[in-house]
Amino acid sequence: MKLNARDATAWIARPPADRPGTLLYGEDGMRVALKRQELLANLLGKDAEEEMRLTRLQAAEIRRDRALVSDAIKAQGFFPGARAVLIEDATPQHADAILGALSDWQPGDAHVVVVAGLQKPSSALRKGFEKHPAAACIAIYGTPPTRAEIEAELTAAGLDRVSADRVAELSVLAQAMGPGDFRRLVEKIALYKASDPAPLSSEDIAACAPASTEAALDDVLNAVADARTADIGPILRRLEAQGVTPVALAIGAGRHFRTLHAAASDPGGAGAGIGKLRPPVFGPRRDAILRQAQGWGAARLDEALKVLTDTDLALRSTSRAPQMPLVERAFIRLSMMGRG
């Protein structure tokens, strides 16, 4: 039977013990693997591998010996508890052996978990599970996790006091990350908060989120955008000593001011625009960008981007003018513009 997204989530969270099998298929191998891992953990509980309650079969083995699936389903182990047979890398060519074993399934037999790549509607494997009256067919799409899935991830990691606002921030972040990276982020946050009884905050998320590519330039870019002209020279000297090139500074500044422009130009205002930024920003950096976007406004940011474009062209030209002073002059000019 074909399950929709809501029923699939419920099935994976609490796999019915009296059903013969589940097909998980999708184009994104990482997302499928994570759902497979979750399904087996919920179905078998702890120590399934050690207690030999999980039998793993490769699809290539099935083609050589079609009886392997039936034998694995019927086999009885020494330990009590639910059992499962995992078949990975299945294709439509393995449909007959798998579906034939499902037709002989009886209560008490092992649950069959089949993992496959993208299956066309005409796939014999997919059609067989969709038409089966008791087995589940679940498509795993390459979409960001839903709010319910994010809350489940947080609960599984031991983070059970997370406000709706923080879940919303994580939802935005999940859209810019792969599923494996997002799961590692949740695990990192759980470790970060292990001895902290305070509720999860935006600052906590920002501290654990992957560093932005602009992080090394944040000091000087904030000095420019906040009109702290006197700070620009000393910060540039420090960055130059660290090996940051003038071109990298110009590129970083252009990216930063385009971010401000995108936020300031939103019809709903900078507050609405900042929520649409990709990659998303959180914590103190979000507050700084919002403040800067509101302070500059779209019109002045247009002018700032023209200055940065001219500077970038000058850096890439054949001119022999010293490049770092060229960037410093542009940054000072921008900081003066920012004073209104």
TrEMBL record:
Give the first-level EC class, as a single word. transferase
Molecular function (GO) terms for this protein are: DNA binding; DNA-directed DNA polymerase activity
| Cellular component GO terms held in the UniProt record | DNA polymerase III complex
Alphabetized InterPro entries for the sequence: DNA_pol3_clamp-load_cplx_C, DNA_polIII_delta, P-loop_NTPase
**EC numbers, comma separated:** 2.7.7.7
Look up the domain of life of the source: Bacteria
Can you supply a Gene Ontology BP term from the record? Answer: DNA-templated DNA replication
Q: Which UniProt keywords apply?
A: DNA replication, DNA-directed DNA polymerase, Nucleotidyltransferase, Transferase
Reactions catalysed, as given in the entry:
DNA(n) + a 2'-deoxyribonucleoside 5'-triphosphate = DNA(n+1) + diphosphate
Please give the PANTHER family that the UniProt record associates with this protein: DNA POLYMERASE III SUBUNIT DELTA (PTHR34388:SF1)
Spell out the family assignment given in the record's similarity comment. Belongs to the DNA polymerase HolA subunit family.
Q: What is this protein called?
A: DNA-directed DNA polymerase
Organism of origin? Palleronia sediminis
